[in-house]
Every structure is written in structure tokens, then in C-alpha cells.
Amino acid sequence: MKGIDNMEQKFVVVTDEKFSHPMSRKDAIELVKSYDNKQITAYIISEEEAKRIKNPENFNTPKWE
User: pLDDT means per 10 residues in the chain (65 residues)?
Assistant: First the structure.
């Protein structure tokens, strides 16, 4: 069984305050770049992960070591 096709999979951009609406990977990348230009930290997660964590406050910021 193959994974979900990227064209069908939706992504959500999460900031400290909110989730975006589900969107394509390309649109999510553009939105993150837009936030970065405004010096706002944002991350891309799958729509399924957004549904699982339900609230931006439940998002665990990745640790880059």
C-alpha cells in the first residue's frame, strides 16, 4: 500500500496562536515563508496531526540538536 499522494494530502500551518485552514503543501510552504518574513515562527503539520492535537498550545516545538 502506498502512502497518501501529496496532491491529495492537506497540511496545516501552526503558529503560537492558531492553525491555518487545510491547504496544499505548496500553499503551506508559501504561508510559512510569509510568516518568516514577519519574524513569526510557523511549522507545517499534516491535517491529521492538527486534528489529533486540536489546539496550537498542544503542539510540541521540534528540538533541533
Answer: 62 92 96 96 94 87 80
- Residues 3, 29: contact at Cβ < 8 Å? no
Q: Which of 31, 63, 62 is nearest to 49 (CA)?
A: 62
Q: Would you list the DSSP string of 1-65?
A: -----TTT--EEEE-SS-B---B-HHHHHHHHHHHHHTT---EEEEHHHHHHH-SGGG-------
Q: What is the pLDDT of residue 1?
A: 39
Q: Which residue has the cell 491547504?
A: 23
